Structure formats: structure tokens, C-alpha cells
């Protein structure tokens, strides 16, 4: 669903006037973006599962190092996405990575279990984005900058 929704939403929200004037070009662009994103997701998942299976069979055990190897190698699937989209995907994944890291540290006992701690982690990630918006506006893509200005002024 997200592979379909994101390119469509991005094109329909940020290029509304062009969509009305050139609908065929817009639909072709949406189709191309959907295929690229679907290919990225398919390769990402397939490589992860394949490496996980192979490493389990070669090592004879299943532990977190198998997952680390699978994650590292599946991360190279990002190169199937256009360079302009890689930053967007990173922005999408950073809060999830922070939440996973937080949950792992709570599980291992390195951090206390705070009720609704994932909300705190998300708030910290949003604070980082707002800090970048306030201090380094020139580093933010124009489409995101326009969206931030719409919401935050």
C-alpha cells in the first residue's frame, strides 16, 4: 500500500496544477515511481530473508548477528531507488530505527522501561527535524520545506 500511496500523494499534493494540464505524463510518472518503489521493497525483503536463511544454515545457529548481516546486505537495495528519493526514505526510517534501538536497549536492560517510551523517541526525532527546519533551511528539499512552512509557518 505505501509503495502506491506515497508517489501518488507526493505528485498530487505538490504538483497539482501540472497534473491537470498533463494527466498522461503524471500517470506515467506515478506508474514509474510505483514500479521503482515496489522493486526496491521486493529486493529489500528478498535479500533480507535469503541472507537470514543462508547465514542460519552456514553458521548452524540463529542469533542477532544473522539479523545484523541480513539487515546490512538488504540495505543495499536502496540503490534501486533514485538518489532524490533516498533522503525521503531515510527520513521515514530514522524514527523507526530509533524506536527499534530503544526497544532493544529496554529489552537488554540498558535503559529503564518508560511507559509510552516510543512516543518520547518519536518526539525526539520530530524535535531533530524541527531543529533542522529552524537552523538549516537550505539543506531541506523544497517540497518538504514548503510542507513545513504550510504546517509550522
From the structure above, extract its key features:
153 residues, mainly alpha, 7 helices, 0% strand, flat
Give the tally of β-strands: 0
Unreliably modeled segments: none
Q: Taking Cα atoms only, what radius of gyration do you get, to the nearest Å?
A: 19 Å
Which series of helices and strands comes N to C?
HHHHHHH
Average pLDDT taken over every residue: 80
- CA-based shape: flat
Beta-sheet strand percentage? under 5%
Fraction in helix: over 70%
What structural class should be given to the helix and strand makeup?
A: mainly alpha
Count of DSSP H/I helices: 7
Taking the alpha carbons of the first and last residues, their distance comes to 31 Å
Sheet with most strands? none
Report on the structure:
This protein has 153 residues and is mainly alpha-helical. It is built from 7 helices and no strands. The chain has helices at 2-14, 16-21, 23-59, 64-74, 83-108, 117-135, 142-152. The protein is flat and about 60 Å long. The model has no long low-confidence stretch (mean pLDDT 80).
Amino acid at each position: 500500500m505505501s509503495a502506491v500511496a506515497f508517489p501518488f500523494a507526493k505528485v498530487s499534493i505538490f504538483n497539482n496544477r501540472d497534473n491537470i494540464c498533463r494527466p498522461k505524463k503524471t500517470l506515467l510518472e506515478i506508474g514509474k515511481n510505483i514500479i521503482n518503489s515496489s522493486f526496491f521493497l521486493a529486493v529489500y525483503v528478498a535479500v533480507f530473508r535469503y541472507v537470514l536463511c543462508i547465514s542460519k544454515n552456514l553458521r548452524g545457529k540463529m542469533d542477532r548477528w544473522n539479523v545484523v548481516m541480513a539487515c546490512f546486505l538488504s540495505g543495499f537495495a536502496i540503490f534501486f531507488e533514485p538518489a532524490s528519493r533516498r533522503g525521503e526514505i531515510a527520513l521515514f526510517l530514522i524514527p523507526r530505527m530509533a524506536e527499534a534501538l530503544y526497544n532493544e536497549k529496554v529489552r537488554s536492560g540498558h535503559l529503564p522501561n518508560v511507559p509510552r517510551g516510543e512516543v518520547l523517541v518519536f518526539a525526539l526525532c520530530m524535535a531533530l527535524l524541527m531543529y533542522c527546519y529552524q537552523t538549516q533551511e537550505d539543506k531541506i528539499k523544497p517540497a518538504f520545506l514548503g510542507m513545513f512552512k504550510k504546517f509550522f509557518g
